[in-house]
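Chain A, query sequence.
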Amino acid sequence: MPRTSARSQGMFPCEAEVARRLSQTPIEWAAKAKILERDGLPKVDPLMGGRPWPAVQAYFLRRYGLSTVEVMAPDGVENLDVL
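Chain A, predicted structure.
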């Protein structure tokens, strides 16, 4: 069984893993992601360094009429100093 990296698992997978999960090559996915982001695909979270996978799944379910749940984008950079 091939060994998988931590970046290919979890809630914020790397772009190569997102491409794999969506049956795309990394090059195909990079081009398509730019277009899909204009339609609401969650962007790469700058703090976590990846797209939130549950939100990506929810985006595609909504896109194909399989869910009515709206995915919300983060509302800005978090200020952890106020805690």
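The chain has one domain: 7-66. Residues 26-37 form the longest helix (12 residues).
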